[in-house]
Amino acid sequence: MAPPIKFGISWGLHPEIISPPEMVLSIAETVENLGFDSLWMGDHIAFHGGHFTECLTTLAAFAARTTRLTIGTSVYLLPLRTPGVAAKCAATVDYLSGGGRFVFGIGVGGEGKEEFDLCGVPVNERGARTDEAIEIIRKLWTGEKVSHDGRFWSFGETSQSPPPLTSGGPPIWIGGRSDAARKRAALLGDGWVSYLFTAKRFAKGIAQVRQWAEEAGRALDIEGGGWTAAHHAFIYLDDDEARALRTGTEYLTRRYNMNFEDIAEKYLIHGPPGRCAEQLAEFVEAGASHFILRTVGEPETDLEQMTRLAEEVVPKVKE
């Protein structure tokens, strides 16, 4: 039996606007009241593409404003932090949210060399640092005394407390487009989050993940929901398909400081609700079970976009 299809919202400050704190905090209640399953935050220490609050502290505030919503990072740039600090902060969010509501989505980053320089981390070490950090974090989340002797970090017996309330720690989902990200998800993660993928490429990616896991002797419980295949999608609803594409293209071009005119049509979910539902359903057929949706309009359209998604798109996909 396939796992239930879930829908979440990816949210963050808009590139040109710093919203008032109460407006930021209230988004959690809005997303929960609209019936979505999850709420996600991206992460940057310093980024040319706009404003970013620190994601884990923001998620802790979101947890306090909600009761059932899953909260998660999509994705936390793990190599920019020491694993001890990352483990402690993530465990605290899990603890304060009551356990079972937090997903630690991680990635290696690399979009902006300036934030790696700021954190004193060589960009070319980000993958290896991430792999070792995952190992250390899982050790520390046991709450027991642990030690480690590795390439980047070594320490004698130590422990962190309180451990996460979620048994074994919150799930770690690996985000990324590269082969390395998918292999990391297959060998070390509890899920994978794709972005800027077509449904066809997503299906091939899941097949790769299964193959790598099988070769390593690791069983992934994808059908049972123990390992999650997720897709982060940019989306914009408009009954005028051409206008939807134009709006989304302009937003993504500003956000990422690169021209999206030739690629937005390929990756952006856009148009009337029925068309958007069909595009998302293609990912369901490809194996996706959790969608992380980022609306790409002006700030004043956020509520309308999320409401239309909840009422006009999500039910169609679930049908």
> End-to-end span in angstroms?
16 Å
Strand proportion: 15-25%
Largest sheet: 8 strands, parallel, barrel
Count of DSSP H/I helices = 11
- Strand arrangement within the widest β-sheet reads 1-2-3-5-8-9-10-12
Let me know the average pLDDT. 95
Tell me the total number of β-strands.
12
Shape: globular
Integer-rounded radius of gyration:
19 Å
Series of secondary-structure elements, N-terminal to C-terminal: EHEHEEHEHHEEEHEHEHHEHEH
Helix content: 40-55%
Question: Which stretches are low in confidence, meaning pLDDT under 50 for 5 or more residues running?
Answer: none
Structure keywords:
319 residues, 8-stranded parallel barrel, two-stranded antiparallel sheet, alpha/beta
Descriptive notes:
Helix 3 (83-96) crosses helix 5 (126-140), helix 7 runs parallel beside helix 10 and helix 10 (273-286) packs across helix 11. The chain has eleven helices and twelve strands. The chain is 43% helix and 18% strand. It is globular.
